[in-house]
Amino acid sequence: MLKWEGSTAVCLNVHGEVLMVLQGKPEESKTWSVPTGGRDTGESFEACCVREVEEETGYKVDIVDKIKIKTGTYEELQVTYEAHYFAVKVVGGERKIQDPDQLIYDIAWKSINDLVELELTFPEDRCFLIDFIKNISA
Fold first, then answer.
1. C or N terminus of the chain, fewer CB within 10 Å?
2. CA-CA-CA-CA torsion sign (9, 92, 62, 89)
3. What domains can you pick out in the chain, each with its CATH number?
């Protein structure tokens, strides 16, 4: 079984909206996700997170906090995964798709109300993201 390791960025703006990307392979239905990507050999999870946000959205970010590690298995793909989630803040750059994998189709700030309705790449993240926004905005 293959093992995937990567990082996920949770970035909120001043309106309590989360930065998300519409992504998918050309033949797939496109779904929304917070910026996420695989770690390069020898790269730290923190560096992976910062790089992925810039590649997928154009924004430069700083890590604010480590939130959690999500692990599991996608049996149908025969892949185990370990995703490190980080709270990040935008410190520069501008909204621009520059994904070298060409899997990003849109970038948007999404509200809690949007999260309830969106088709998510990782549906198991829906409650976590809504709770995260509520806790930060409280």
1. C
2. negative
3. 2-137 (3.90.79.10)
Contacts of 43 (CB under 8 A, 6+ apart): 51
* Cα torsion angle, 72, 75, 76, 77, sign: positive
Which residues contact residue 72 at a Cβ distance below 8 angstroms, ignoring those fewer than 6 apart?
80, 81
| Phi and psi angles of residue 123, each rounded to the nearest 5 degrees, phi first | -55, -25
Q: How many CB atoms lie within 10 A of CB 20?
A: 26
Over residues 27-43, mean pLDDT? 95
Q: Are 115 and 123 in contact (CB under 8 A)?
A: no
Tally: H helices and E strands in the chain:
3, 7
Q: What pLDDT is recorded for position 138? A: 59
Assign 56 a pLDDT band (cuts: 50, 70, 90).
Answer: very high
- The reported pTM is 0.93
